[in-house]
Structures are given as C-alpha cells and as structure tokens.
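Format notes (please read before filing issues)

Several people have asked whether sequences and structure tokens are stored in separate files. They are not. Every record keeps both together, in the order shown below: the sequence lines, then the token lines. Line labels are part of the format and must not be stripped during preprocessing.
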Amino acid sequence: MALFLQKPQKNCHVTTQFNLALCINMVMEYLQIQPESRLPYIGKLNPFRAVIIIDESVSSEWQKQVSTWIVRSGCLYMMAWGNECSSWDDSVDLANLEEFNYKDIPETKFVMTTWHENEPLKEVFWFSKNTAFHPEVELPNTLILHIAKSSREQELLAEYNNA
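Then the structure lines:
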C-alpha cells in the first residue's frame, strides 16, 4: 500500500510516496522542474539516490547549479537519462569534487554517478531499485528529478513502480 502526498510549488511538481507495505521509512519523490527555474529545498531527502530525467535542453550554468544543489542536498547516487545525459554525469562528479575543494572526498560523501544514454527508461528505473546502492551509506530515499516543461508524474511513477 502506498500513500501519496502532493505539495504544489511554483515551477515544480512534487509527489511523495511512502512505502507502508515494507513498514520502513522509505520515501520516493517525484519533482518536475522547468529548465532554468529556481530550485526548491530537497534536503529532507538526505541521503538519497536520484534519477534525473532530462527532457529539455538547459544552459551549462543551470546544469552546474542543479548538480551542486543535488550534491549539497544529500544525493549520493545519481543516474542521468535523456538529453545529453553523459554531461550530467560529469557535472555531478565536478560538483562533488568542488564541494571538497578538489581534495579527498570522504567515502560517506562520495557521489556515485551513472548515465544511461542508450537504455530504455524502465531499465534505468530497474537499476535504481535493484543496483544503485552506495557502498558506505544506506539510501532509503529516491528522487525522480524530471527536467521538463510539463509533468509526466503519473506515467513516470507507474513506470518506476513497475520496474
């Protein structure tokens, strides 16, 4: 049984799903943001894994902002899929390095990154649920970050749940 809570925000759409069947505090959240928009607070998910679905082109400056934002918010495993997804892998890697002034990153703060350029989205969702584990930190929370002009919330949540 899953419980959905909706929290409307300007330029984004959020859905939180608590998995009550497993009786654990696990949150899966969908967040749709428009390209170049202001980024909301997501630190409550810390620590978390993120699947970034890039449906729209964005500026390199905004991509860097988003990458820094997810690293500082507690993302420890990022999977990118969609437009220029390999650049997101690099961008998050750089944000993680910058967070520690290009010095050694503590193992509990190291962000794992992958990009999935030639894979169906359902395989990325399966990977997120079954393989995307941090070697040092349990990640009870998952964020589907959808960079798009309009929400595909129900479709993407259903596809994630079925993966």
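For reference, the curators noted about this record: The CA atoms of residues 53 and 146 lie 5 Å apart. The chain has four helices and seven strands.
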